Amino acid sequence: MMAVAAHAELTNDTTIIINNPEQIKIKQSDKSLSVEVKGSKANPDYLYSTTLSCGEDALVVTEEKSREFNFNFPFVKNKDSHQRYKSEIQMGGFGFGMVNALNTPSDMKVDMGASYEFMISNLLAWQYRPWNNGTAFSLGFGLDWKNYRMTGKTQFIKSNNDLILGNYPDNADIKFSRIKVFSLTASFTFVQQINHDIKIGVGPVINFNTHASLKTRYELNGDNVKIMDENIHQTPVTVDFMGSISFKSIGLYFKYSPSNVLKTDFGPKFSSMSTGLIFCY
């Protein structure tokens, strides 16, 4: 006789008690009966399996396995029966959204609908789960591109060593004038699993702004004009504060940065925010 009820306790008879198993798999044939139990209330990595052969006069156990701990890459450490430590390497966090400039000069009007951000927040990430309650802490390294685009009557102009705002030539057919910033990122995120499908994340993102460029395009007297410059004095290091909510592998993110995008000695003073979709996060 075998009863499956409730913390992995094997007595001298055939009674096995497992509290709150996550999964029970029973397979029966003419000659055998196998039972596999995964997880328990005290240990989600618990595994128990047994196979019984059916003879003419008796039921005989031919195979029995029990495993208290499951060591996964990089490691799993069980401190006691109620607490689990686990860390793992992850990849993902592909995001695409819209960008806006905040606290801008009166004549600088960034078109949020035409400005965009593309990011890979976790090109490589290390996640640590200190407790068995859906809480995790993540350290991620990634890439980010932000594009601040103006489509109105004002353009970015490189004058000597400064970036200033000015008008287009008379009769110009305006396309856009934009600043693009490329960054290497390091993110520190607190993650909380709400249920099996939903989780939230919040934390700072440090941007190492390694490259920035200016590009302006318009048409004048039938000629296409393109002006580019790559030395626009971006702020070397800025900080975003990022929050996200995801359902399964798709989510929404929001980022706000109080940092100035450009060095204020060389260009207009403004900060940024962005929002969009994030995948595999």
Structural write-up:
The structure is a single chain. With 281 residues, the chain is mostly beta strands. It has two domains: 9-67; 76-279. Helix content is 0%, strand content 64%. The protein contains no helices and 18 strands. It has strands at residues 9-10, 16-17, 23-28, 32-38, 47-54, 59-67, 75-80, 83-102, 116-129, 135-150, 154-159, 162-167, 173-193, 198-220, 223-229, 237-247, 250-257, 271-279. The strands form four sheets. Strands 8-9-10-13-14-16-17-18 form an eight-stranded antiparallel barrel. Strands 3-4-5-6 form a four-stranded antiparallel beta sheet, with no helix packed on it. Strands 1-2 form a two-stranded antiparallel ribbon. Strand 14 (198-220) and strand 15 (223-229) form a beta hairpin. The radius of gyration is 29 Å and the shape is elongated. Mean pLDDT is 84; it is low at 1-11 and 69-83.
Please render the helix and strand layout as text.
Elements: E1 9-10, E2 16-17, E3 23-28, E4 32-38, E5 47-54, E6 59-67, E7 75-80, E8 83-102, E9 116-129, E10 135-150, E11 154-159, E12 162-167, E13 173-193, E14 198-220, E15 223-229, E16 237-247, E17 250-257, E18 271-279
Antiparallel strand pairs: 1-2, 3-4, 4-5, 5-6, 7-8, 8-9, 8-18, 9-10, 10-13, 11-12, 13-14, 14-15, 14-16, 16-17, 17-18
